[in-house]
Design a protein that fits this description.
9 helices, 207 residues, mainly alpha
């Protein structure tokens, strides 16, 4: 829903492609669950995509770029360290001093390589490529690594179309799946004669 003061002039300075927060918290746009309004909004949204496909893709890329840190220096909201009022009645009962120390600790490495989405996409791509190489023998762990890497990419790249904001925390499943797929691929090779043969060959060359 829109308030009485809404206008294109008021929208432009508050619009950010990476988040709707600036529109919601300023009061320009409100949330609604009214079925008729949501249906009309959905129709207008689809109509806008058909009329302005390039603008739509450009907007989605700006969001996804920040989400995955393509060409950006900082990480966008890697985790939530607060508890907001909720229907479950969960409240923040932490010691303020200990909570402050925990927040400083976690935010101290929030903008490191650990929170870089494209890095985990790259890991998943490399695992899939390694699994498809004929020189790598097939076994259950290798298959599990391949499908975990594929799931990592499908889940992560899906946010190109439906991410509401640039929050890195959306990519947690992608991070876990890509890391697990790499671990399973290494474990798969250790169980094969192919890996043992390469290891012995490497040791023989050193001697």
């Amino acid at each position: 829903t829109l308030n009485a003061n809404f206008s294109p002039g008021a929208l432009r300075p508050n619009y950010r492609p990476e988040s709707v927060d600036t529109l919601v918290w300023t009061g320009l746009v409100g949330q609604t669950e009214e079925p008729a309004f949501l249906s009309e909004l959905n129709q207008r949204w689809l109509e806008s995509i058909r009329k302005f496909p390039l603008e739509y893709l450009r907007h989605r890329w700006e969001v996804f770029k920040m989400l995955s840190r393509f060409g950006t220096t900082g990480c966008c909201y890697p985790y939530e360290l607060k508890i907001f009022p909720n229907d479950l009645g969960v409240k923040d009962r932490c010691n303020p001093y200990l909570k402050g120390l925990a927040e400083k600790y976690f935010w101290s490495f929030a903008h490191t390589a650990v929170f870089t989405g494209w890095l985990y996409f790259g890991v998943a791509f490399m695992v899939m490529a390694a699994c498809l190489l004929k020189s790598f023998p097939s076994n259950a762990l290798r298959d599990a690594a391949f499908y975990s890497a594929l799931s990592s990419l499908l889940y992560g790249f899906g946010y190109f179309f439906y991410a509401l904001a640039c929050d890195f925390r959306y990519l947690y499943p992608t991070v876990l799946l890509s890391v697990f797929s790499a671990i399973m691929l290494v474990a798969a090779q250790k169980e094969t004669n192919w890996f043992k043969g390469r290891l012995w060959a490497a040791r023989a060359k050193r001697k």
